[in-house]
């Protein structure tokens, strides 16, 4: 799908905007590409946005789409996505190695959602709580392996 003509027409000349979140919500992608959510899904479906995830709870009917920031950058820079890109490197960019659990508030920022959504994903069994909640902050710690499993299951191909 070709949206670049629209993007060039409506976008200011911005060469660099620091984005710290590895996953972007649909509204952010809509702002960058100046398009609607259906067009974004078309880009996911045709492989133009190669790494996309549905982070909805099991009970939800509506998709909760997140796009890998690097996938959006590749698309905007007109780089051909590599379908054989090392997936483990992609997952490492989302959840860096070295920790066996992730605090819920950090995971919420990583997945670009709110902490309540993380709680719902824990309750529906999508994430496994790694340890008991910290008494002082009541922050859940989620096992990194359960998050990786979730992302791999929820990747839209």
Care to describe what's here?
- With 157 residues, the chain is an alpha+beta fold.
- Helix content is 43%, strand content 13%.
- The chain is globular.
- The two termini are 16 Å apart.
- About 5% of the residues have low confidence.
Compute the CA-based radius of gyration: 16 Å
What is the count of helical runs?
A: 8
| Mean pLDDT over the full residue set | 86
Q: Helix- and strand-based class?
A: alpha+beta
Distance between the termini: 16 Å
Strand order of the largest sheet: 1-3-2-7
E-strand count: 7
Q: In which range does the helix fraction lie? A: 40-55%
Shape: globular
Order of helices and strands: HEHHEEHHEHHEEHE
Beta-strand percentage? 5-15%
Largest sheet: 4 strands, antiparallel
Poorly predicted runs: 4-11
SSE blueprint and pairings:
Elements: H1 4-10, E1 23-25, H2 26-33, H3 37-45, E2 52-54, E3 65-68, H4 69-76, H5 87-94, E4 101-103, H6 104-111, H7 115-123, E5 129-131, E6 141-143, H8 144-154, E7 155-156
Antiparallel strand pairs: 1-3, 2-3, 2-7, 4-6, 5-6
């Amino acid at each position: 799908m070709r949206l670049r003509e629209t993007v060039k027409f409506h976008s200011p000349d911005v060469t660099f905007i620091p984005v710290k979140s590895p996953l972007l919500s649909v509204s952010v992608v809509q702002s960058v590409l100046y398009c609607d959510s259906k067009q974004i899904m078309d880009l996911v479906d045709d492989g133009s946005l190669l790494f996309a995830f549905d982070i909805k709870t099991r009970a939800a009917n509506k998709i909760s789409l997140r796009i890998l920031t690097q996938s959006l950058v590749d698309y905007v820079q007109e780089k051909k996505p590599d379908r054989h890109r090392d997936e483990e490197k992609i997952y490492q960019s989302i959840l860096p190695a070295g920790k066996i659990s992730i605090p819920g508030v950090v995971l919420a920022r990583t997945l670009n959602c709110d902490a309540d959504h993380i709680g719902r994903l824990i309750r529906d069994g999508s994430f496994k709580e790694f340890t008991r909640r910290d008494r002082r902050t009541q922050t859940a710690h989620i096992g990194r392996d359960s998050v990786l499993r979730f992302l791999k299951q929820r990747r839209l191909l």
